[in-house]
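TA notes, week 10

Several of you asked for a full example with nothing omitted. So below is the full record: structure tokens for the whole chain, then the designed sequence directly under it. When grading your own attempts, check the secondary structure regions first.
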């Protein structure tokens, strides 16, 4: 039995006051009976669902499922909260909660949004640190042609025409996958003969082979594989060497559990999922170069 202490103040000992006292005691008694009836069930539930705090702490540190960022007026991260969602949420200094792409990082006439760019840079840097990727910056040059780009060994995120980063980046694994892609550009070394479509296709392949890629959103993943196929097709059309080996490596790598590319000189390249179903490859805009 669970014993609780109750303090009841009586105004006097009149019949009406004593009647009120009896009603109070009856209510306490009934609640005590209900509590006792539920005690065994509650104890059983706790035993079955109990997880040691040390295990929780250990799992939290390993999972990197941290996605609620609290920031101050300067854009610095002051707290990161554990949440099992794939989405990146930001709690601003005024208490408002927004998605990552809601932060306007464009350079407008009367507002340069420097704080928002600092927030985006800090969050991107947070995930970059998990991947051992450095040199990540944010600028205000609007573009809808790319998610990010690398210049002089530095990765740059930029706003779309809507003012924020691409909404794909609301998913932390999409963001991580892009950082991995750009990091592979960082590691590229200049070679004689210039940059080729096969070189860029190889960057995509390394991105797919990282374990992060299987956690990206379906639309994001299919879009990037479609990009890879487009670069392969252009490499073939320009009579480059080595593109056939990239297809073979893709098919051997069990990308997304076994996606498979069937190259055809006529009729178009085919893509099959891990169940053998042929997928519709999104028609992409023509490439204006291998970069």
């Amino acid at each position: 039995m669970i014993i609780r202490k109750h303090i009841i103040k009586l105004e006097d000992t009149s019949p009406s006051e004593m009647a009120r006292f009896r009603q109070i005691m009856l209510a306490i008694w009934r609640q005590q009976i209900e509590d006792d009836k539920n005690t065994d069930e509650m104890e059983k539930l706790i035993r079955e669902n109990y997880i040691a705090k040390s295990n929780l702490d250990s799992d939290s540190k390993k999972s990197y499922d941290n996605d609620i960022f609290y920031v101050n007026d300067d854009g610095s991260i002051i707290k990161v909260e554990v949440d099992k969602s794939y989405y990146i949420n930001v709690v601003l200094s005024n208490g408002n909660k927004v998605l990552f792409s809601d932060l306007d990082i464009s350079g407008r006439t009367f507002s340069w949004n420097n704080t928002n760019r600092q927030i985006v840079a800090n969050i991107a840097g947070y995930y970059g640190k998990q991947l051992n990727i450095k040199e990540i910056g944010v600028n205000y040059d609007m573009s809808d042609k790319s998610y990010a780009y690398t210049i002089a060994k530095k990765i740059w995120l930029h706003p779309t025409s809507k003012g924020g980063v691409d909404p794909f980046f609301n998913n932390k694994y999409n963001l991580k996958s892009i950082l991995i892609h750009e990091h592979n550009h960082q590691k590229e070394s200049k070679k004689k003969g210039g940059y080729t479509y096969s070189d860029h296709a190889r960057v995509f392949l390394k991105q797919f082979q990282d374990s992060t890629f299987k956690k990206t959103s379906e639309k994001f993943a299919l879009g990037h594989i479609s990009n890879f196929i487009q670069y392969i097709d252009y490499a073939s059309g320009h009579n480059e060497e080595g593109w056939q080996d990239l297809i073979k490596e893709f098919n051997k790598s069990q990308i997304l559990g076994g996606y498979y590319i069937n190259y055809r000189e006529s009729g178009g390249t085919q893509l099959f999922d891990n169940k053998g179903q042929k997928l519709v490859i999104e028609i992409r805009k023509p490439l204006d170069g291998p970069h």
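Helices lie at 15-49, 53-63, 114-130, 172-186, 197-209, 218-237, 243-252. Use that as a sanity check on your answer.
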